[in-house]
Amino acid sequence: MAERILTGIKPTGQLTLGNYIGVLKNLKKETERGECFYFIADLHALTLPIEPEVLRQNSIDLACFYLAAGIDTKKANLFLQSSVSAHAELNAIMQNYLYMGELSRMTQFKDKSSKMKESAIGLGLFAYPVLMASDIILYDANIVPVGEDQVQHVELTRDLVNRFNNRYGEVLTLPKYEMRKVGARIMSLSDPSKKMSKSDPKGDIFLKDDLTTIRKKIMSAVTDSGSEVKYDVENKPGISNLLTIYAALKEISIEDAEKEFVNSRYGDFKKAVADVVCNELGAFQEKYRQILESKEYEKVLLEGAARAREVANSTLKRVKKAVGLLNLE
Ligand code: TYM
Predict the structure, then answer these.
(1) What sections of the chain are H helices per DSSP?
(2) Residue 326 Cα, ligand 1 centroid: separation in angstroms?
(3) Residue 112 catalytic?
C-alpha cells in the first residue's frame, strides 16, 4: 500500500540548520513513497506571541524553503494550515479525548511555559498537541517525519487514535513517527547540551544567515578537550554534534565521517564541516531567492490547500458521523 506522509513546520522565528537536517532535507525523497502533505503550521505559530507582519513574512519564507528543498508539488501538497478549516473543526472535537494530565506532561509545554508567568500562558500553548494530533489524523497519515523533539507529540496522537478507535470502531488511521538515523537532534553550536532552536541566535545556524556568518559560527563552535575527532556524545558533545552535521549533510554514516578525520586536528575538521554546510546552504539559498522572487509559492499553496481540503473534509465527515454529530447535507 502506498504510504501517506504528513509533516508540518511552525513559521515562528528563523528556520535553523536543525530544521533543515531534521526534516526539510528529506522531504523530497519522501515523495517517492506515497502522497505527501506538507504544511505551514501557522495556527500553531499563534500559540506564542508573534507580530502579524512577522507571521506573514515567516509563512512566505517557509513556503519558499519547502520548495527550495526540491519537493515535487505533483506528489506533495503544500499548504497553509489555516487555509483548511477542518484543522480547527477537528481540533474542537479531539480536545475532548485528550486529558489535562497528559497534556501537562508534554516536554515542549513544560519547557516553553516554565519561562513564562502562569497568567501569560495561553490555552493554545497547553492544547498544542490536540491541534497537532488533528493535523495528523485529518490526512490518514501513517508516516510522520519529525525531529526527536516532536516524537512525544506523535506518540500522544497514537494514544488518542487508539482511545478513539476503541470507543467508536476503526475510524482513524494509526500514525507512526519517523526520524532520520543521523540528525534527528542537532545541538546548539555554543552549548551542545541544548537543542539548536529557532530562539537561540548564538548557537544556531539560520537558513538565511549569509555564508560568511555561517562559516564564522562553525569555526567558533564550542569544542571539547582533547584533540581527536571522535563521536562520543558524553565526553565530546561539541565534536559529536559537528560530526552529525557533517554526516547528515553528506548522507554518510557517523562511522564513515569519523574515518575521514582520524588524523585531522579540530581546526581542519571544522573547516571541512563549514565547507559542507556552506556548499549545501549556498545552493539552497539560491533556490529560495528565485522562488521568493517568482512568487510561484502562491499558486502552489492554493492548489495544495484545495487537495488538502478534499482529504481533510472527508475525514472530518467520518469523525462527525462516528461521534454522533448530524451531517445534514
Ligand atoms: P518545529 O517548527 O519546531 O520544527 C520543525 C521540524 O524540525 C524538527 N527540528 C529539529 N530536528 C533536528 N534537530 C533540531 N535541532 C531540530 N529542531 C527542530 C522538529 O522536530 C520538526 O519535525 N509541532 C511541530 C509542527 C507541527 C507538526 C504537526 C509536525 C504541527 N503539526 C503535525 C508534524 C506533524 C513544530 O513545532 O515543529
Answers:
(1) 17-22, 27-30, 42-45, 52-68, 86-94, 100-104, 107-114, 123-126, 128-138, 151-168, 211-219, 237-250, 254-260, 266-294, 296-323
(2) 35
(3) yes
Query: Each residue of 237-287: pLDDT tens digit?
Result: 999 999 999 999 999 999 999 999 999 999 999 999 999 999 999 999 999
Question: If you take atom 22 of ligand 1, which residue's CA is the nearest one?
Answer: 146
Residue to probe by mutation, ligand 1, list 7, 12, 16, 19, most atoms within 8 Å of CB: 19
Residue spans of the domains in the chain: they are 4-183+295-323, 211-290
pLDDT tens-digit profile of 83-140? 999 999 999 999 999 999 999 999 999 999 999 999 999 999 999 999 999 999 999 9
Catalytic residue chosen out of the listed positions 10, 25, 195, 270: 195
Domain 211-290 is found in CATH 2.60.40.10: no
Q: Which CATH class is domain 4-183+295-323?
A: alpha beta
